[in-house]
Design a protein that fits this description.
Layout: E1 8-9, E2 16-17, H1 22-32, E3 36-40, E4 47-52, H2 53-63, H3 66-69, H4 92-99, E5 104-108, E6 114-119, H5 120-136
Parallel strand pairs: 2-3
Antiparallel strand pairs: 1-6, 3-4, 5-6
Length: 137
């Protein structure tokens, strides 16, 4: 089980909703300055996938018209990279394996409801702190 202090709670995570337009997603992503954000189902709060700024850009270029594509839903954007979520009971070993291949791990409950994220940075700091504490004990 992972320590609670590793999880950035959903209230502090920039998210998108699956029914947003590309225009709304661009505005939110630009304001937060994050390159990839979780996409949630609006009514349930269930984690669906993560959308990267590069996915948005590719979609706009492929559509051939910036203005025409802005009113499309973000659900029309194909994603290049699957960001795998985990539950609170993931082992540190499995968490590290996931973080080796993705910048963050979305944390969900058993029903898939989004609860927050664990970033690679937070996990690294936690592991370093744990190692130092064990050396000093």
């Amino acid at each position: 089980m992972i320590p609670k202090q590793l999880v950035t709670p959903k209230s502090r995570v920039t998210t998108l909703f699956s029914d947003m337009t590309i225009r709304q997603a661009i505005e939110r992503m630009n304001k937060s300055r994050f390159q990839m954000v979780p996409v949630l189902e609006k009514d349930s709060g269930r984690y669906l996938y993560s959308l990267a700024a590069s996915d948005v850009l590719k979609h706009i270029v492929t559509a051939g018209s910036y203005e025409k594509s802005l009113d499309n839903p973000i659900s029309s954007i194909p994603i290049d990279r699957l960001i795998i979520p985990a539950t609170n009971d993931i082992s540190m070993e499995m968490l590290v394996d996931l973080l080796a291949n993705q910048n963050y791990v979305p944390i969900v409950d058993n029903g898939g409801i989004f609860g927050g994220i664990i970033t690679r940075k937070n996990a690294l700091y936690h592991l370093i702190k744990t190692e130092e504490e064990e050396e000093n004990a």
